[in-house]
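Database export, one record per block. Field names are fixed; values are copied verbatim from the stored entry.
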Amino acid sequence: MKSGNTALLALLSAFLMWLAWPPIPYTTPLLLVGLVPLLIALDKLMLKTEGKTGKKIFLTAGLTFLVWNTASIYWVYNAISAVNNAVVAAFVSLIPFGLGALLMIFAFWLYYRLSRVASKNIAYLGLLSFYVAMEYLHQSWDLAFPWMTLGNGLSGMHQLAQWYEYTGVYGGSVWILLSNILAFEAYKKFKTVSKGYTRLRPVLGWALFILLPAGLSLTKYSQYKEKEVPVNVVAVQPNIDPYLKFGGLSSAEQLAILTRLSDSVAQPNTEYFIWPETAIPSRVDEDRIRSDADFMTAQRFLEKYKNGTLITGIESIKFYPDQQTLSARKYNNDYVDVFNGAIQIENSANVQFYHKSKLVPGVEKMPFPTALAVLGPVFEGFGGTVGGYGSQKEPGVFYAYSGIGVAPVICYESIWGDWIGQAVKNGAQFIAILTNDGWWGNTSGKDQHLMYARLRAIENRRYVVRSANTGISCFINQKGDIIKQAGWWTRTALKADINLNDELTLYTKTGDVIAKVLCVVALLLALIIPYKKWIKKAG
């Protein structure tokens, strides 16, 4: 096959995967065959006997994954270019565009290397394991950005992902990869066998592999019933320009907007008010919170709602006599930590804080700080702290006086299923996502972020209440349906009766066990490559 043909096949896979990816509606099933053109191209390359096959495999897979990633998360450039010149923004955007793609490419390259020393089925197991292991790495290291995890793609048609309550998104990644492998094998058999049942058997096997999980999911979706445990909740969308939020409006003016919007839809029995990320933008000293003017304003607002509880985003600080954390910075004679966090306020002296833990690389923490410190000034315009925010090691659960437990989730954290699952396992009966999606502008970034939240609802069978500063705020039921939502870039508030749930799903109990097992399998299979090479030399 000519190199131009393999490039066209690689680009066809990139196009199909982009077309299937959220937020494009109704095209999600294309994920199940989107990688087949790439597998055809790689198979042709591997059949050749000429040299540099490994390099061609790397470049061909690279074309698919770089184009697909860039087309799907182009909005990263929008966010960076808003506070930097075009050249700097383009350079920095190459990190998220290229890094995730590089990990995917490496998985396919390892698959090629393994296929040279192992059977076809072992090589396919390697491809599956290598790919999921790379996805898991990309949610675990300093440069974590698991946005393009394959299983996230089913958020476009969440009715097909109801079994995520057992597997989480990595179950989706496995299903999508296996579907593509089976479809590729069916294609090869169809091309090489002229007639008869032998020709059609792989096609029927692939169809069965698709239809059984899809049918079970649709059945689960149609039959799932929520227990009636209603709580009235208000989600506020103040629509304050994120680039003016930390200086354009005073915190008192912002609080006035938030309380007015809350009052506009609340009712006497409203139990929860959810405000977005950094809704209280002034850096409040946590040890002096009860005397802070913004805190007292928020608590006075609650006085008219006897059973009311407020969960809001906040920027807070803590002072230490010495450097107790790596993120703490010297301040006069003390050390200080800055947190992008959440606070729960009640009609009592009880105050609870949560510190965002999954921090955005560059904006909220500097990954590999010694090596990449030079990039610090690039991210100053996003309202973060170049020195890095502080964080906490465990997920948080806010408990109200009524006994209700809520998982506070701040922005980027909402794409970590296992992290949220731990909070649910610790007692959260619904999930509150506080976010500020205006950094990305009116792009698919905000829509993808919203759609991924559906998967958290399914995984844990918990309502999700999403309060977004500029949009899109919404309520998501336990099946992943968005039952009410606000428009983009509108100032509004929503209210709904949501159902609490205290039952635990299998995924909530076990977390990302599929990914962890496949990481071990990937390591063992990767060791076969040098071992076989050593055996060959020794012989």
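Remark 1: Confidence is low (pLDDT under 50) at residues 378-386.
Remark 2: Residues 86-115 form the longest helix (30 residues).
End of record.
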